[in-house]
Amino acid sequence: MELYLDSADINEIEEAFKLGFLAGLTTTPTFMHRHGITDIDGTIVKLSKMVPVLQVEALGETAEEIYKEAQRLLGLGLEKEKTVFKIPVSMEGVKACHMLTSEGIKVNIHLVYTLQQAYMAMNAGATYVCVLVGRWQDQGHDSLTLVEQCVEAVDRFGYDSKIMFSSVRHPEHVRNAIELGAHTCTVPWKVMKLLTENNFTTVGTEQFFEHTKLMTVTVNQVVNRSNNPVVSVEDTMNEAIFKMTESGFGCVSVVKGDNELVGVFTDGDLRRLVANDGKIALQKKMGELEYKSPITIESSNLLNEASTIFHKTGVDTIVVTENSKVIGMLDIQDLN
Question: Which CATH number fits domain 218-335: 3.30.450.40, 3.10.580.10, 3.90.76.10, 3.60.15.10?
């Protein structure tokens, strides 16, 4: 099934056709008016140079006027092989369609809402027969059955026409087009961008990135050395509270001498000390406190090792060392 973009927004068109596989662009005077375009001819010529195939309106009240308008547009420099002229279905429209297709010019008979209209377009040699599914559904009609009937007519009678599924409102419409066997589907960019979306795909992809990161990235690559909350054994608890708050971590490393790690002081330790000793606890020096053996990881280790430590110990922060010297803190969120 051919996939067309349905738009007149230059920015959308440029972005969409970077995909590299879209069959072409459908546009309408309504789209151009909506985007404030006044130089219609100039815009058409510009679009024709941006896309593989351009489907553009050829309007007129009679078959002869429609034919002349298509010829006029070709005279602007549009290539016959890369241009499809859109003509609303009518007796004059299908007559003009036959006149143009007899000369090898491609035509899309659109604004089709009944099988009879589609039948006339097929007999006139229309390259495309375009059913406006969403618009017809808005009026309470069964557009999907109409598309199915049109596809069956092409197959049964051997017409060369392609059935185009248009007026796409949501991704489900694209699925409908595929299931019904439509030959072409023209889709707005906002809907097209949703066609690859699925929550389970998103979750799975995020897991792949997460696990790849764990197996290939070292602690050194993610640790922020400039945010290293360290206090000396000579510092008071007030200094530890300040460093803890300033860094955003729930703990500080306590060191002595040449940055030798003594222990880790946490916000939980702070609450317990204040609960037991009251305000006087804030005057204590960090060297007066007792510490458990600190949980550390060398900066050269992979994040996978850090993940194992987090899960085994239940802590949220690990002290990062390099040659046994404290260089920073690794938070569990850094693994994401």
Answer: 3.10.580.10
